[in-house]
Design goal:
Helix content is 74%, strand content 6%. By secondary structure, the protein is mainly alpha-helical. The two termini are 69 Å apart.
């Protein structure tokens, strides 16, 4: 900066002029500007690269999800389309995916058969009783195992896992004999008890993982406020794990709803469930594929509706288990 003195109207005035930049300082400023611009460009390119990577990952995940949905959903869609085919189309060679002619004849034939409505009632009764039994036994068992952590509790939960490894036929045959001896043959009660042996080990393991995710501090705080141990369980812990209970109930219900072998061994006429009735759709020319697919499609509706109704509980329960993991 330079200062020039000169007189204006007899008075001394001082004018300040900006200093002239040297060539070195100009080069330095230019270099700093280029350096700053380069950093910004690199940061922008880096951000664009990250965003492109995220888009590629999302696209790949959507493609994999679409493939999985097609592979998983195609058999059910084929069953659904077959249920609307004419009897000739159901056995056509080569088979077609879509019906050449849409018809409700298969549904009318399937639902009009004797015993179909009774089989639906039997399946519903058996699934509900089995689910309630599983929850009533699994919730206190899982709570005791996770809270007291005794050696016998660990042995018990491992034994429950081992029972899942035994083939169902190895349990079903002696159970069928025992139920016949007890006078419970061909009754929904006997079948419900048998289905509970399938769903109970899985229910205990599921509920144990959900109870593990609940901090003990919640119960201790409730007991400080005057709750008993049972009151803390009922008022604090059960509401927290309600999503897990819903998930366990759905799995227990599905295990009973879809079970076939025990129903085949233990039922004859009075308590036959729908899967057994579907397997008995025979004609003089072979299996009645159209009626079988129609009844199977109808049989799938309650499970789909139940899952949709309890969707929020399922997500909450699965999230609770994920937090624990």
């Amino acid at each position: 900066m330079s200062i020039a003195d000169h007189r204006v109207g007899g008075k001394r005035a001082t004018q300040t002029t900006p200093p002239a930049r040297s060539s070195a300082s100009l080069k330095g400023a230019t270099a700093q500007t280029d350096l700053g611009g380069g950093r910004k460009r690199r940061a922008r390119h880096h951000a664009e690269g990250l965003e492109a990577g995220r888009r590629s990952t999302r696209t790949l995940l959507w493609i994999l999800l679409a493939i999985a949905m097609v592979l998983y959903g195609f058999p059910f869609l084929y069953l659904l389309f077959t249920s609307f085919k004419t009897p000739i189309d159901t056995i056509a060679v080569p088979p077609t995916i879509l019906p050449r002619e849409w018809t409700l004849e298969n549904y009318i034939n399937a639902l009009g058969r004797n015993g179909v409505l009774a089989s639906f009632i039997n399946s519903t009764q058996t699934a509900i009783i089995s689910t309630v039994l599983s929850l009533v036994l699994a919730v206190p068992a899982a709570y005791g195992i996770t809270r007291y952590k005794t050696p016998s509790g660990r042995v018990f939960i491992m034994a429950a896992l081992v029972t899942r490894m035994v083939p169902p036929v190895a349990i079903g045959i002696p159970l069928a004999s025992m139920m016949a001896t007890a006078g419970l043959a061909d009754t929904p009660i006997a079948l419900s008890i048998a289905h509970t042996t399938i769903s109970l080990p899985l229910s205990i393991w599921l509920m144990a993982s959900f109870f593990e995710a609940v901090p003990k501090d919640l119960e201790e705080a409730a007991t400080v406020d005057g709750c008993s141990r049972l009151g803390a369980l009922w008022r604090v812990v059960i509401p927290v794990v309600s999503g897990g209970i819903a998930v366990t109930a759905i799995f227990a219900f599905l295990a009973s709803w879809n079970e076939f072998l025990f129903a085949l061994l233990m039922t004859a006429i009075r308590s036959q469930t729908t899967p057994v009735v579907i397997a008995n759709f025979q004609t003089q020319f072979g299996l009645d594929w159209g009626s079988m697919t129609a009844l199977a499609a109808v049989y799938s509706i309650p499970v789909i509706l139940l899952t949709l109704l309890l969707q929020r509980k399922i997500v909450a329960g699965m999230t609770l288990g994920a937090v624990k993991g």
